[in-house]
Amino acid sequence: MSVIDELQQAVKNSPRQSPGDEHPMSNFLRMDRIPHIWCPTCGIGTTVNCFAQALERCSIPLDDVAVVSGIGCTGRVAGYVKTDSFHTTHGRAIPFATGLRLGNPKLKVVVFSGDGDLFSIGGNHFNHAARRNLDMTVICVNNFNYAMTGGQVAPTSPTDSVLTTSPYGNFETPFNLPFLAESVGATFVARWTALHIHRVTESMIKALMKPGFSFIEIIAPCPTIFERKNKFGDGLDRLKFYHDNSEIIHGAPTKDVDIGLRNKIIVGEFVDIERPTFIESMNAYLKRRLGSDYDIYEG
Amino acid sequence: MAIRYHDNPFGKHKPGGPKGRVVIVEDGCKGCGFCVEYCPNDVLVLSSRYNVKGYHPPEVVHPDKCVNCGFCRMICPEFAIYTVAIEPETV
Questions:
Q1: Residue A187 domain flag
Q2: I need a labelling partner for A225 at 20 to 30 A (CA). Which of A13, A125, A299, B21 fits?
């Protein structure tokens, strides 16, 4: 039987429904939109799995969660999850989430976006949301390039990485995202790779439960552009690379955790501090200044 | 030789660990092989068949080895594989 015959057979038998039970994620995902657009061996789907697991284990009702995404491969997450979600313009996920958070403080606001969207186009918004300590969770899936537009150099592309706009290698210094997040005032900073599934889930639970600005960076393989251009193989080879080359150091000084192209990746939960959130400090300050004239804002 | 109490407590059958059944949504699979590589008990292999999109989906070769850990479900980027717990047989 030739390959063509086999494929025709497969098409004839389609859809092969799974026997019996429905998918355990079907109450979290818009299953009518699955299969998604992400490439084979891309790591973003795995992070969505972890997020669903974290929400389930926190037992937060899905009506109380809002997922906001920007533009890019990771920006598609908002379209696939069955919570309230919004797919904003490029880089403006955090401003939208700020408004959402202040308008309805009972909502858990999660910003799920990529490195280009959050740190290049939306870099300024990230700084100010962290400075104000808005109560939100920012999950950044870092694939080291602008993958959806064809693999241009992003602010996180490691030095020496070959990409579409750096055919001889990238000479720029990349952002060290945990260091950036800590220095602008995030209260919870963690970094994991797409292979550390259970640890990512644990960190997401901590971030969701913690009042204040929490930031999780998840390093994910981009098989179509970053791994192919830099000769890393496919996503599975990259996961093996993460397995061999990632070192877990909780509480490591964030200035030492920058990523080289083929260096060890230091992962872990780096920062976990307490600071008054934006709404708390607003209420406390204005109550002190205005006394009984001020009504505490609770949404 | 020391008696191993836990092998056969009170003459009953040894209670087994958790057992699972793997369900593969074949047409959603993109053949990345994450589940095959990271299944802790090597339950799966990549089959030589094609699915509707032309990828090779995984295939269950050792169904009795599945312990319902759910790692395949968590690592699958396509939401195309999951496990269902099998109720242990009553003794």
A1: yes
A2: A125
> Could you tell me which of A161, A281, A275 has the C-alpha nearest to residue A229?
A161
CA distance A128 to chain B (A): 32
Q: Give B25→chain A minimum CA distance, Å.
A: 5
Domain residue ranges in chain B = 28-91
> Strand A214-219 and strand B44-46: pairing?
unpaired
Whether residue A19 is contained in a domain is answered as no
The torsion angles phi and psi of B77, rounded to 5 degrees, stand at -75, -10
d(CA A58, CA A54): 6
Assign domain B28-91 one CATH number from 3.30.450.40, 3.30.70.20, 3.40.50.300, 3.90.190.20.
Answer: 3.30.70.20
Whether residue A71 is contained in a domain is answered as yes
B31 CB neighbours in chain A (<8 A) are: 40
Nearest to B79 among A3, A29, A53 (CB): A29
A40-81 pLDDT per residue, tens:
999 999 999 999 999 999 989 999 999 999 999 999 999 999
Chain B residue with the nearest C-alpha to that of A49: B74
Number of domains in chain A: 1
To the nearest whole Å, the CA of B34 is away from the closest chain A CA by 6
Q: CB-CB: which of A16, A20, A21 is closest to B26?
A: A16
pLDDT along chain B (91 residues), means of 10: 59 73 91 94 93 93 92 93 82 48
In a domain, A11, yes or no: no
A35 to B71: CB separation less than 8 angstroms, yes or no: no
Residues 6+ apart with CB under 8 A from A17: none
Rounded-to-10 torsion of CA A78, A80, A83, A88: 20
User: So what's the pLDDT on residue B46?
Assistant: 94
β-sheet bridge partners, residue A67? A85, A110
Which two three-digit tokens encode residue A87?
């797919």
Chain B residue closest in CA terms to A17 = B25
Q: Do A35 and B50 touch (CB under 8 A)?
A: no
CB-nearest partner of B32 from A16, A197, A235: A235
In this complex, how many residue pairs, one in chain A and one in chain B, have their CB atoms less than 8 Å apart? 96
- CATH number, domain at A248? 3.40.50.970
Residues found in chain B: 91
User: Which residue on chain B is closest to A201 by alpha carbon?
Assistant: B74
